[in-house]
Design the sequence.
């Protein structure tokens, strides 16, 4: 079942986020808390136009899981 994420019509980033969430949910409570703290760190990006930075956007907020 190669590239099942393509058949599900999701990007690879969305697919990896879904897998990571499933793994975190399978952890025991103590390890889950540590993993959830790491999950709070997110990726942000901003579009640049005419030498000026646009609004910072959180990638996780834009990708539905």
Sequence:
């Amino acid at each position: 079942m190669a590239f099942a994420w393509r058949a599900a019509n999701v990007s690879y980033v969305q697919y990896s986020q879904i897998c990571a969430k499933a793994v975190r949910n399978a952890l025991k409570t103590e390890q889950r808390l540590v993993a959830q703290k790491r999950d709070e760190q997110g990726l942000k990006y901003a579009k640049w136009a005419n030498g000026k930075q646009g609004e910072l956007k959180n990638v996780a907020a834009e990708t539905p899981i």
Observations:
- The CA atoms of residues 44 and 58 lie 4 Å apart.
